[in-house]
């Protein structure tokens, strides 16, 4: 191998290393210290971010409780209004709080920050979601916004949210579009949500270390 060829190989390796920037992980403590001294408005996704809500979605996708052993919510359960009435109205009783979600909400509450939950879930006639969030995270009157599978960016802008936590790619891009600081929260290992979750950190967002639990 000639010296010139070795130089070319070295340059190629250098270019590849530069193009593949490492994932920017951040610890809870480092995140806390990076926040402004004055209170801010913090936004949170719900599913897989603060709550492990897969039990309700698992039932929707796999049940055989409909007529003649079919799915009671039809061929497209997640598009069924009946499912969203059940999910928001009762299934969240089986959702488990994430340890990292509790720590994040407590951190912002202790700072005196305003906390707003924004979910892409469909709305429903009856919702116990605020009650579950109140009982789980100790927030007196949780504000919950349902975007019905639409972009969260307008809600982030309208509520002056400066930092937004979410697990999905769409959470990150919505925060970036709204000029809010996006923080990626890792999905629990048993999550049954396969959508909108590419390689974490690929969108340039910070990734909260240890947030899968």
From TrEMBL:
GO cellular component annotations of the record: outer membrane-bounded periplasmic space
Catalytic reaction list: a phosphate monoester + H2O = an alcohol + phosphate
Matching InterPro entries: Acid_phosphat_B-like (IPR005519), HAD-like_sf (IPR036412), HAD-SF_ppase_IIIB_AphA (IPR010025), HAD_sf (IPR023214)
Location of the protein in the cell: Periplasm
UniProt record similarity statement: Belongs to the class B bacterial acid phosphatase family.
Keywords attached to this entry: Hydrolase, Magnesium, Metal-binding, Periplasm, Signal
Protein name: Class B acid phosphatase
EC annotation from Swiss-Prot or TrEMBL: 3.1.3.2
Record text on subunit structure and interactions: Homotetramer.
Main localization category: periplasm
Cofactor section: Mg(2+)
Molecular function terms, GO-annotated: acid phosphatase activity; metal ion binding
